[in-house]
Amino acid sequence: xxxxxxxxxxxxxxxxxxxxxxxxxxxxxxxxxxxxxxxxxxxxxxxxxxxxxxxxxxxxxxxxxxxxxxxxxxxxxxxxxxxxxxxxxxxxxxxxxxxxxxxxxxxxxxxxxxxxxxxxxxxxxxxxxxxxxxxxxxxxxxxxxxxxxxxxxxxxxxxxxxxxxxxxxxxxxxxxxxxxxxxxxxxxxxxxxxxxxxxxxxxxxxxxxxxxxxxxxxxxxxxxxxxxxxxxxxxxxxxxxxxxxxxxxxxxxxxxxxxxxxxxxxxxxxxxxxxxxxxxxxxxxxxxxxxxxxxxxxxxxxxxxxxxxxxxxxxxxxxxxxxxxxxxxxxxxxxxxxxxxxxxxxxxxxxxxxxxxxxxxxxxxxxxxxxxxxxxxxxxxxxxxxxxxxxxxxxxxxxxxxxxxxxxxxxxxxxxxxxxxxxxxxxxxxxxxxxxxxxxxxxxxxxxxxxxxxxxxxxxxxxxxxxxxxxxxxxxxxxxxxxxxxxxxxxxxxxxxxxxxxxxxxxxxxxxxxxxxxxxxxxxxxxxxxxxxxxxxxxxxxxxxxxxxxxxxxxxxxxxxxxxxxxxxxxxxxxxxxxxxxxxxxxxxxxxxxxxxxxxxxxxxxxxxxxxxxxxxxxxxxxxxxxxxxxxxxxxxxxxxxxxxxxxxxxxxxxxxxxxxxxxxxxxxxxxxxxxxxxxxxxxxxxxxxxxxxxxxxxxxxxxxxxxxxxxxxxxxxxxxxxxxxxxxxxxxxxxxxxxxxxxxxxxxxxx
Length: 752
Hints:
The protein has 752 residues and is mainly beta. Among the domains are: 7-198, Winged helix-like DNA-binding domain superfamily/Winged helix DNA-binding domain (Arc Repressor Mutant, subunit A, Orthogonal Bundle); 473-684 and 722-740, 6 Propeller (Neuraminidase), CATH 2.120.10. The protein contains 5 helices and 55 strands. The longest helix has 32 residues, at 167-198.
């Protein structure tokens, strides 16, 4: 057989290539995370045979110690992506108290040959396959989600428990694969296996389990981690934890403030952190001794992440100048003297990442920056750069491209950078840039995401501290009166409705859901049944609305490069782009007559409102001041929106403007400060506005009468935050997306 012959597994409408491991459905690529692909292959290879959970854990995670929840999540993901067969059958069955089985007919194709690997037809008339997916947030677990090549010994050991049982079926295929491998690549495989065996296994140790820890850093000697907990009883707290003893000390008592980044001084004696409060609404830099003591205000007007010079005497930070429409990387002494900009760029030229890293030799500062990719597809491709402190000369460090770059740290020997970054379909992961070779490799793999602002590395480069980030939200329905005692949960996905939620005229619910790392448009029946995707691609969809007649869904997507407005039929067909150009669009809402769409548009560092015909055409600007999250009144004559606050010291404003645009006609200073806001909603009678308010990690809906007066609390939820909400088309129900953002700190060893 030719070495060029491709080998496939085929089942239903799906085909997966065995070498490249690329899953397709009717010729279209179906993206899957690496571990989900490995799990699918194991199930296909043992088709129609039951595999226990232990066997699957050994096969897919043989060289890692992970929680069983990883298996459950990946099975859930595969089921959601694959859907059902033509006759409604499930591809993956749960066998109660035993394990899982791939139940569909599977054909192995070698070029033009087809080999049926089903040994027999199932005789069971019916198997119950429903399973509740639960995950544990127990502390002190070691979590490993990295993808690795298994050595032959590991593979043999893991498969032994079931191979003996089914060797008559599997043996011919296995022998064929062994012969092919020996002919085509034994030497490369042997070399790779030997290298992997000599390299210590990467370990991930979870050190917090509150679900609120963020902005973490680690001391140079690796003995302590510092982190903040914002919104603890509605207030901010800073902790330091001794890693060996797991002893935690609260450095600051709760107060009316929130925290930005933390960092240990190079000598490990102090913890520095950023505070936002009434005295310093734009931020200030503070420090406190590691073991506790008096907090000292170091630098005012300091509202960004920061990095120390190697001697600990100076600090570099980021600053925006809205009057000049430019942004800079600044350096200053800790007494405030010697402040200077070492790099300044206009908003129109580049976007600088707000986090930088001072090199160990003290000569350069590394940072991320986004520039335009092509004139016809405006999109910020972010790359790694460095700037020389003395000359201001800028050097590109890597050709690798990311969507965004978060916190970064140099290794003490100057050999490389660790940093947080995101890419489409992947989300936030940790990366290592090798300064000597110019190569970049991922430190983390899998479905786990990592926060932009938690990162630190010890002086010897042996331990990396990072922040895990997990967002979960589910759809609920309640009466329009806000009575939460009769709330009914409709979905159990990962992030259902968080980034988009609306109703169709036929009663179906349309929403944005995350499957793996992809965000797509889904629909379900009013009772939560028959959930199915309308889009299934690698693009990011958000901001969902439906026309009143139910013909069209309007949404935001990055499929054309930047965030633009798209329209598709309610069945997912005929996707058309509506907006183009340099602006980034968000939060569409459709008029009651279905003729036009209002949305927010970001351009030249300003958010304004615009409208465009539903059929496409020229857009019209409605506001020339900062305004976001529009919502059209039931009669189509007015638009509610939010006027963002410029600081944490002042609330944002709920405003009503004419549908023709212009200055606000009514304003209500009731919206808490935030970086991200949710669209207000009109009550069905048009006499009041509904908005979400989060207090002490609990979200509820509030009602503001247009006639004035104090707002009244509409719902009385006692847990979870509210991510999104919308009225049903007949106004009798409220749909609510509710959940929690869980952030914890993890230590990673052998990460290089």
